[in-house]
């Protein structure tokens, strides 16, 4: 199992030298373990280039099974740890940007006050990417909308409002609420959802076709573009809580909601640390804003 862990670390750090330092091995020991692993499998797993280290085509086919073995080993270790009392473990999360930025830092801090040796691996992505991560075991669970991702267990922990974002100089900024039809008339800056989009669904329900001029993944880039007068947008209310952009946020008529859920395959099959953190999220859901 150590050889598989070494392989994972090399790919994470894109370097034999950095992986050796992180794991406390010499570089020659790391190279020998990879060579031994390749000999056992009968294929070359890694290739080196000026850009670093990457998987060979054969390695790409095999690596998902290696990841699966590593996660199973992690679960085995953490189950043994749970018998002794949770002391160590890794929680792997895939989350949309608004959740990872505005909710998770404080939740991580509070959870680690109780379990200081727990580590977190957080990956940000759109809905489609997070669903794929859950499906292939890259993350233990996702924090995303409950309205997307068939075949998964979902537990809603909070419902956030999607709001209109307009430049301060825009005529719509003077309204108390912005009719969704008015947003459809302006150039629209759409946040990419990766298979599902609350803005597009809300326009569809209203029988409207928005004038989508830009498709952007990053919330902050969208706010900068709104500030520059390039269009209007619809984003989570969480994004508006910490921003210095010269934009105005308004509720939409009718109101657009996003049910944020914990999304996973089987909770009982997750690493113990992740099960604990899911329980912690549920216990603290009323404090989420």
TrEMBL record:
Originating organism: Fructobacillus pseudoficulneus
Check the record and name the Pfam families matching this protein: HTH_1, LysR_substrate
Question: Has UniProt tagged this entry with the keyword Transcription regulation?
Answer: yes
UniProt entry keywords in alphabetical sequence: DNA-binding, Transcription, Transcription regulation
Its GO CC terms?
cytosol
State the Gene3D superfamilies in the record.
3.40.190.290, Winged helix-like DNA-binding domain superfamily/Winged helix DNA-binding domain
Q: Name one GO molecular function term.
A: DNA-binding transcription factor activity
Q: What is this protein called?
A: LysR substrate binding domain protein
Alphabetized PANTHER family for the sequence: HTH-TYPE TRANSCRIPTIONAL REGULATOR BSDA, HTH-TYPE TRANSCRIPTIONAL REGULATOR YBHD
Q: What protein family is recorded? A: Belongs to the LysR transcriptional regulatory family.
User: Which CDD domains does the UniProt record give?
Assistant: PBP2_LTTR_substrate
Q: Known InterPro entries for this protein?
A: HTH-type_LysR_regulators, LysR_HTH_N, LysR_subst-bd, WH-like_DNA-bd_sf, WH_DNA-bd_sf
| SUPFAM superfamilies assigned | Periplasmic binding protein-like II (SSF53850), Winged helix' DNA-binding domain (SSF46785)
| Keyword Transcription belongs to the record | yes
Please state every residue range assigned to the domain named HTH lysR-type.
1-56
């Amino acid at each position: 199992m150590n050889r598989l862990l070494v392989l994972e670390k090399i790919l994470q750090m894109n370097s034999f030298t950095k992986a050796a330092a992180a794991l406390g091995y010499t570089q020659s020991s790391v190279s020998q373990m990879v060579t031994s692993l390749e000999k056992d499998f009968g294929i070359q797993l890694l290739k080196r280039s000026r850009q670093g280290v990457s998987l060979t085509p054969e390695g790409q086919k095999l690596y998902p099974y290696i990841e699966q073995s590593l996660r199973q080993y992690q679960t085995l270790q953490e189950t043994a740890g749970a018998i002794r009392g949770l002391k160590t473990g890794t929680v792997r999360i895939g989350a949309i940007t608004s959740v990872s930025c505005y909710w998770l830092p404080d939740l991580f801090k509070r959870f680690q006050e109780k379990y200081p040796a727990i580590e977190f691996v957080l990956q940000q992505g759109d809905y489609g990417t997070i669903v794929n991560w859950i499906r292939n075991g890259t993350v233990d669970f996702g924090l995303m909308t409950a309205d997307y991702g068939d075949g998964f267990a979902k537990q809603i922990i909070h419902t956030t409002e999607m709001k209109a974002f307009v430049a301060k100089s825009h005529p719509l900024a003077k309204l108390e609420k912005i009719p969704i039809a008015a947003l459809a008339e302006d150039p629209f800056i759409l946040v990419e959802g990766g298979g599902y989009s609350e803005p597009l669904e809300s326009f569809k329900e209203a029988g409207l076709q928005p004038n989508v001029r830009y498709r952007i993944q990053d919330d902050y880039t969208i706010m900068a573009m709104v500030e520059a007068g390039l269009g209007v947008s619809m984003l989570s209310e969480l994004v508006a809580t910490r921003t210095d952009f010269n934009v105005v946020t308004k509720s939409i008529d009718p109101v657009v909601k996003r049910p944020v859920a914990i999304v996973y395959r089987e909770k009982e099959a997750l690493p113990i640390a992740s099960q604990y953190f899911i329980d912690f999220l549920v216990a603290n859901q009323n404090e989420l804003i």
